[in-house]
Amino acid sequence: ALSATLEMLEGARSVQPGLFGANAEAIFADVNRVLIIACGTSYHAGLVARYWLEAIAGVPCVVEIASEYRYRESVANPHTLVVTISQSGETADTLAALQHAKNLGMAHSLAICNAPESSLVRETALRFITRAGPEIGVASTKAFTTQLAALYLLTLALATRLGRLDAVREANALQALRHLPAAVARVLELEPEIKAWAERFSDKQHALFLGRGRHYPIALEGALKLKEISYIHAEGYPAGELKHGPLALVDRNMPVVAVAPNDTLLEKLKSNLQEVRARGGELYVFADADSEISESEGVHILRLPEHYGSLSPLLHVVPLQLLSYHVALVRGTDVDKPRNLAKSVTV
Ligand code: F1P
Question: How far, in Å, from the CA of 114 to the mean position of ligand 1?
Answer without folding.
Answer: 11
